[in-house]
């Protein structure tokens, strides 16, 4: 099958075999990538039109109990200056974000157990009460027990983002010495069963990652059918065991974004900050390849540089209002339009009817 036929098959059927995905990854040429991106953009438009949803991202703690080999926040990194926002400081971020028009707040942190289920539940209730239920609350706090997830959902949390990182067990175990491949999947399954809108996803360009691993990632996502899919390039951090490894590329990541759009067409897919870090127009390129979410940072400027999963992250000195209007101009520059609503996934909207 020719590359053009492979792309058309993915566009028409929303399906490719693992062997076909591997063949595409290994042999796709630059001009064929452009065809792939156009098909992915057209697929996105079928479900979401030209809308790009904005979420206000609050990175509320860079303390983490885990020791993932690629992450600058890993517990073994003694050089990072740790911080932890109080619930009051998080609410102040929400106030600023609400003023700027955001109606989804993404509360993201390392796995910091100082934030107990009681603290987080009360925080979620306060956010919901503060804005008369007008906002969605997304959590990205890592692995907890199913009972904790249930309590947070009952308190009003709407969504939960937790990348599966890689769908290949051997690669996962090699990168996560303090974690379990089986438990990661169990957490994602529990979140779905509870009723969250769930986000999964993976990194592109990890050391030792093969085209077969990436095909496995896409097939796992097709099986899981999450509401959101986060895909970003691996960017080495010098204070980690992988600090001297080669990072992922923009082109390889965009191919995965486009394929994810074709294979899970009704998902929400962010144009990640990591892509914007690798290329000045990285996020715009992702939007043109099927992505439809951007998460501007509303973390206080005083601490945002300390939330360094990788180095040289963009927007470290920007104020929330700078990010808000910069992003809007970038989205409009590629012929798309900002949507400041809650921005639920198509699957969730249809399931709610």
From TrEMBL:
Keywords, ordered alphabetically: 4Fe-4S, Iron, Iron-sulfur, Metal-binding, S-adenosyl-L-methionine, Transferase
Annotated EC: 2.8.1.6
Residue positions binding S-adenosyl-L-methionine: 165, 184
Signal peptide feature range: none
Note accompanying the cofactor annotation: Binds 1 [4Fe-4S] cluster. The cluster is coordinated with 3 cysteines and an exchangeable S-adenosyl-L-methionine.
Molecular function in Gene Ontology: 4 iron, 4 sulfur cluster binding; biotin synthase activity; metal ion binding
Record SMART domains: BATS, Elp3
PANTHER family associated with the record: 3-METHYLORNITHINE SYNTHASE, BIOTIN SYNTHASE
Protein name: Biotin synthase
């Amino acid at each position: 099958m020719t590359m053009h036929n492979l792309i058309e098959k993915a566009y028409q059927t929303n399906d490719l075999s693992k062997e076909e995905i591997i063949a595409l990854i290994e042999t796709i040429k630059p001009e064929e990538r452009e065809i792939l991106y156009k098909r992915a953009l057209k697929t996105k438009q079928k479900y979401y039109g030209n809308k790009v949803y904005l979420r206000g991202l609050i990175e509320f703690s860079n303390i983490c109990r885990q020791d993932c080999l690629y992450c600058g926040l890993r517990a073994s990194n003694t050089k990072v200056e740790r911080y932890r926002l109080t619930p009051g400081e998080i609410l102040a971020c929400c106030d600023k974000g609400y003023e700027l028009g955001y109606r989804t707040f993404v509360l993201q942190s390392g796995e910091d157990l100082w934030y107990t289920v009681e603290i987080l539940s009360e925080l979620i209730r306060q956010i919901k009460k503060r804005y008369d239920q007008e906002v969605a609350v997304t959590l990205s706090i890592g692995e907890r027990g199913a009972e904790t997830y249930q309590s947070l959902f009952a308190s009003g949390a709407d969504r939960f983002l937790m990348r599966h990182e890689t769908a290949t067990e051997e690669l996962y175990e090699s990168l996560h010495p303090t974690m379990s491949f089986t438990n990661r999947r169990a957490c994602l399954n529990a979140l779905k069963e509870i009723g969250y809108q769930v986000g999964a996803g993976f990194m592109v360009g990890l050391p030792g990652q093969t085209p077969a691993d990436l095909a496995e990632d896409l097939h796992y996502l097709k099986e899981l059918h999450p509401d959101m899919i986060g895909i970003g390039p691996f960017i080495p951090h010098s204070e980690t065991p992988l600090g001297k490894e080669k990072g992922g590329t923009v082109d390889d990541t965009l191919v995965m974004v486009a394929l994810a759009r074709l294979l899970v067409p009704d998902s929400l897919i962010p144009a990640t900050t990591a892509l914007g870090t690798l290329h000045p127009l990285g996020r715009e390129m992702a939007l043109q390849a099927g992505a439809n979410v951007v998460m501007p940072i509303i973390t206080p400027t005083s601490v945002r540089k300390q939330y360094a999963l990788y180095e040289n992250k963009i927007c470290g000195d920007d104020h929330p209002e700078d990010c808000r209007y910069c992003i809007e101009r970038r989205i409009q520059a590629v012929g798309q339009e900002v949507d400041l609503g809650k921005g639920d996934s198509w699957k969730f909207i249809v399931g709610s009817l």
